[in-house]
Amino acid sequence: MKFQGFPDRAFHFYAGLEEDNTREYWHGHKDVYDTCVRTPMEALAEALEKRFGPVKVWRPQRDTRFSNDKSPYKTHQGITTESAGSVGYYAQLSAEGMRLGAGFHGGTEQVGRYREAVDHERYGPDLERIVRKLERDGWSLVGERLRTRPRGCPADHPRLELMRYRSLGAERLHPPAELGGPRALDLVRDGWSRLAPLVDWLEAHVSEEGRR
């Protein structure tokens, strides 16, 4: 199927799910999810694979085993690339539109490699230039970070704000009005392309594969 954008019913579906996250609502509107969310998202993923490699379309059910929130369904539909380690691109469709982004999240070893690279006299300034350009272009930095500073990191470290991150990404939100036609493919493809320098840096310095 050729990607033709997301109809308004996709966003109305998620607005309703936010109000009534129950199996009754889901099964009563599953035809809307299948035709207006899942099918176009699968077509979008297929169209992106030529440039970005395999793209995974995530299942809509939440894993509630270890969560106090037992809501059965995610209030967004996500896709991610299968990049090196825990580094890659993502997109999430929800009632508010589509959130595009890229970054990394991982365990202690990856956080250690990330901070080692940020601390490096050459690699650290490279990342700083990348994220500052993204911020000037309207992207927001996101991720888990410490309130203070990592152990052993001096208070006057030139890249202290970046050192605080335990996971790091950049993302921006596109409203439903921009997603209704086939040009939404160009929007996603262009957005991910602009994030490529960040992904390349993270793959080179954070992922296990990149450090070999």
From TrEMBL:
Origin superkingdom: Bacteria
Coiled-coil segments: none
A Pfam short name: DUF2461
InterPro entries reported in the protein's UniProt record: CHP02453, UCP028451
Protein name per the record: DUF2461 domain-containing protein
